[in-house]
Amino acid sequence: MNEPSRKPRVAVVFGGKSSEHAISCVTAGSVLAAIDRNVYDVVPIGIATDGRWVLESGDPDQLRITGPDQLPSVDGDRAPVALAPEAASTGLVVTEPSQPPRTLGEVDVVFPLLHGPWGEDGTIQGLFEMAGVRYVGAGVLSSAVSMDKAYMKVVLAAAGLPVLPSTTVTARQWERDQPGCRERAAGLGYPLFAKPARGGSSIGISKVHDESELAGAIEEALRYDPKVLLEAYAEGGREVECGVLQALDGTPETSVPAEIRISGDHEFYDFAAKYLPEEHTELDVPANLPDAVTEQIRDMSVRAFEAVDGEGLARVDFFVLPGDRVVVNEINTMPGFTPTSMYPRMWAATGVDYPALVDRLIRLALQRDTGLR
Fold this sequence. Notes:
six-stranded antiparallel beta sheet; alpha+beta; 18 strands; five-stranded mixed beta sheet; D-alanine--D-alanine ligase
């Protein structure tokens, strides 16, 4: 830092071009409200749905879901802002019509609260690496592998972790060889799930009860991603999650696991069940599991985190099948991060409250160098 006496400057980046834009905004509102302004200088940076970077107001009240059709978004008409690498630092420059460019000063760390492609997939992490600015969370490779559910399964299986059977269908394959795609789906058995391979927040996911629903489910997933993951149904599986958080010395620690129980009209943990009022969703924190299963989940969470070369934080999702057989569903390198999201709730139940969680992640990023490590 060029000014040793000043507070570390944290750029909170949110929004983005993915289908999870609104959820990123909600997450950012919670983090902006929790960061200790006596310790950190905070600059809110929004990325509009068309990719423009702007200087946002950072008002948490403007970044809340107020109803099913009232989702927050970044105002792309605000003053444009850009990272400007210099010889020994990286700063933020604001450009407005009829005004000379003005600098907001050196950026010490970026907190990228982005979900989905162009944010959680290694793309923006690569930008930060090129700019030489520290950032919270996983690096380029870890972000990319964990975002792509098909490759994530390859990496986890290679590390000896159990995963559900699956196959991928690309837009090209579906266009040219639907019989072959249907045959591979049938090999998984019905029901199955069709998912955008690089999506999140359950957007574009369908439960496929039989072959008659397959085409519609694949085409729905293709709206969000040209690669679709078809995955076997975890019959009788309980949905359990576990948080991973690095200690300041880099050691990965785990939270108590938690279970999601869905009722009503929701057949699975879809977008409405995750983010709208919890009338049909019950969260057990901690999960009511045998001690041996809890320890297995915590151990497998660390193994999954290390398999993808994780950094900072992750949420690892599991299915606990009949007979207490545990399989890994997926790993999220930037999980939902509002105070009511599962990741912070698990850590609160483990003894790390929300402000402390935010502070830990910023401090971890501040002490980590960019580049090969």
